[in-house]
Structure of DUF4395 domain-containing protein:
Amino acid sequence: MALEEAPTWHRGLLDFPNPVNDYAARSTAGLVIVLAAVSIVVNQPWLYAVLALGFTLRVAGGPRYSPFGRLAVHVIVPQVWKKTKTVPGPPKRFAQTIGLAFSGTALVLSLLGFGLAAQIVVGALIGAAFLEFAFGLCLGCIGFGLLQRAGTIPESVCEACYNFGR
């Protein structure tokens, strides 16, 4: 018996792009910095929730569902950067997942009344986003590579990543 294909409405619903334009990722990081800084200043749970929702949407489908991702891909990169540099998608998704963990932690801390702790967590997130935005240094991508070389993430998830730098 042959396997049936997924219905067209389902195909690609939660796919993350691979490869990714590095300049779009950097632009998104810049937008995250702005929202995260406002979140620290305002220090309200609803704003941490907006930050976490953005990461959730980017983890779910890259720029497809994320307003920041769409703005980066369709406006900032073509109008400002005017460059393309493709990089593997799986490490970028992993990095977005780490961002979700940080922003989700900040949201929970804020809801529990630990506003200063939430601000510190988001401050660390800003640090990582700044490295991505300013220098193209993706800490989540570095972590992805280390986990892949340690065997935690299988080589098949991203063969280009596994062989990078060898």
Summary: Strands lie at 20-21, 86-87. The longest helix spans residues 89-111. The longest strand covers residues 20-21. Confidence is low (pLDDT under 50) at residues 1-9.
